[in-house]
Amino acid sequence: MNARPESWEFLSRNDRATPERKPMSQKQTTLRAVTEAFADVLGPEEAERCVHLALKNSASPTEIIQSLRDGVEVVGQKYHAQEYFLSELIMAGLMCEQAVAILRPALASSSTSMVGRVVIGTVRGDIHDIGKKLVSTMLMSAGFDMVDIGVDVGPDEFVEAARKHSPMILAMSCLLTNAMDEMSLVSKTLEKAGLRTSLKVLVGGRPINENFAKEIGADGYGADAVEAVKSAKSLLS
Amino acid sequence: MNMRDRVLTTLDHQEPDAVPVTECAIDPPHLEALTGLKLTGETSIQTPVSANRKDEMAAIEITYQCYKRLGFELIPCELSAPDDWDAVKNPDGTITDEWGRILRYTPVTRTWSPFRSMLHTPEDLERFPLPDPEASGRLFGIEQMKKLAKDDFALAVFVRDPFAHVWEMCTPDNFVRWLYQNPNLVRKTIETLADFNVTIMKRLREIQVDLVISGGDYSEKNGPMVSPRFFREVIFPNLERQVEETHRLGVKFIKHSDGNLNPLLPDLAEIVDGLHSLDPTADMDIGGIKARYGARLVLMGNVAVDNLCRGTPDDVIEETKDCLRRAAPGGGYILTSSNSWFADAKLENCLAMVEAARKYGKYPIQLT
Questions:
Q1: Averaged pLDDT score across all residues of chain B
Q2: Count of CB contacts below 8 A, A vs B?
Q3: Do B233 and A10 lie within an 8 Å CB cutoff?
Q4: Out of A7, A86, A152, whose CB is closest to B225?
Q5: For the domain with range B3-360, which CATH number is right: 3.40.390.10, 3.40.50.2000, 3.10.580.10, 3.20.20.210?
Q6: How many alpha carbons lie under 13 Å from residue B297 in its C-beta half-sphere?
């Protein structure tokens, strides 16, 4: 695989020792390259190159998505270990977008099933996008079908999106303390609309903790984008 | 000891008669509630949104009256927009500031906050005419606040950190994307914005200020936003240039940042004179930092804003006592919240913080 480009020199390096490998088929080699491109956060161009190469070597979209997930999981682990930082999480997200854009037509025509649909938004009174977007791309890379309804989203808009998209999970994010009460309001509005039992509610963001999540009756909580993925998976298990 | 002397003694790492108390910003609803005055214009705590001097004077007056009423010894003030500037008003109700950031109005806080950018490509950034630090009127607000504060209060000038500024100007996605595609462009822009601040610091010789605080975050909850290596190779050399110029004024330099700064603390302790915010929800332990870096760094913090918003006055009093107990002995400590008084912070909690600070913050600190 290609070395990390020089232009990436300021970001964290991933100097892993290369394990001894068994002989692999060309397809397996290209799938491993996908995983490593993501684990080493080599950028959207490298993601695009590796995905095209894997397709050319007869890898299925499902296999490529699985390889991509394996790489993103490494990124999440390294982020928690402070070997990677927010910039690497953002870049991994951009790489996922690039890969999924290439694979979308093939995925649509294949029998690949997504883990589940998630409607996600930042609650009313808060226009912060980055945390929500990171969670969205991490969930997408984990196989969730994401519907991002943006920032400053009111309770009625969440309900409307839940009716329209029938998600298994409705995820809410906020950065401002003053937006926390909105999460409770959304939860109550979902209940009034009779939708609360048909979906799980996942919350997260800077001021949110597990106690608050319990307090407002949310089903799950993620301290950050990586934890949000774990929480979402456990909600559907 | 007057209020300014209390701050100056603190900045010199000595114990004054009492711990100074302040806030780096107070949202408009609280300013109005505490003074009975009305803000006439539009504001943002991150950037000038108007060069209407009448409105700006009203904002300066209400801020001064509020800080005076609260007995806050240190008053913050900001750079102004140039005399002939006006925000670009966009058809969708947003506005664009001098730095190409698109701001949206938040009714709860009654302030404008950046949420997008007009810069979409590296070429946009390269071509963007960066604001002129020498522009006429740039120091208007600082001059006016100094006239009000005289030498009774200490005056802190806020500048924007070049890294945080470029991060916001580009948006985080594009910052990271362009760092990958064109790292020299990102580096050059950070250098240019550091030059802007250095020029501002030179101009501050015209006005006697007591402190420079650099706003803008380096970290989020988990850790630094970019690798420590990028900090060491690009951000910190530019930070050092600003600190050196500030020191030429005989003034100290405090870095504000939310989030978990722990991996950067050894470097920061060698560069800046102090830190503000020290977010306790992001693993910033004010007692531990005092023990390790208290001889070098002035600490400003860190009553949790979440407690001000959602706790009780008793919770806030206990937390304030805890901050005083752990950070005040020996001096070099200014009590503030872990960010600012947000619009939805309960006023009774904010006032409980101040009352507890006054009650328990007299030197020598008696809390055990």
A1: 95
A2: 102
A3: yes
A4: A86
A5: 3.20.20.210
A6: 29
